[in-house]
């Protein structure tokens, strides 16, 4: 019999599979279990695997798989408990139907950016909570997933919220940083890029930072920037 956890994960992944943005399926680098799962090796919802385009994957499904991968690595630290079901679901639900609120729907200003991020968190948390209830979770468990998605207790020092923050930062560094630097680096300039990296580093716990130092960055210029940001 399917559990509420399995049902909720399937609902979340089915939503991710509707992302109109698709990327090439990442090539498997090795059989090392510490490597992130590729789209071909990770379980996918039927709606994703039935696509005629077998060479690509919806980006948000790829992102969700990366998040789960880094959650496993982050919770392998001896000081960190095994992830709870609400944390695992909140991790998987990051960026849930994110494409429905594009950045361009808010002013291209600092205030507009923060307003957009807040709207995304509320939107994603509301959908995740509804999916958990549909899957059979009770109100308190579903509300906990939503609170984690919103990162409500991050400043209060909630351990699970900090793990989620670590994982999001790790996926940014591993999966998005080089593309972001290529797209925005010239526009932002070196100092702004350094500021973004320093803020990312400051958000992370020591176990998260230890994992970050092991991420392979192929672009030498980006690698040099990361090194400077880490050194302060």
UniProtKB/TrEMBL annotation:
InterPro entries: DUF4202
Region of interest: Disordered: 1-55
Biased composition (Low complexity): 30-52
PANTHER family hit by this protein: GLUTAMYL-TRNA SYNTHETASE
Protein name: Glutamyl-tRNA synthetase
Organism of provenance: Aspergillus steynii IBT 23096
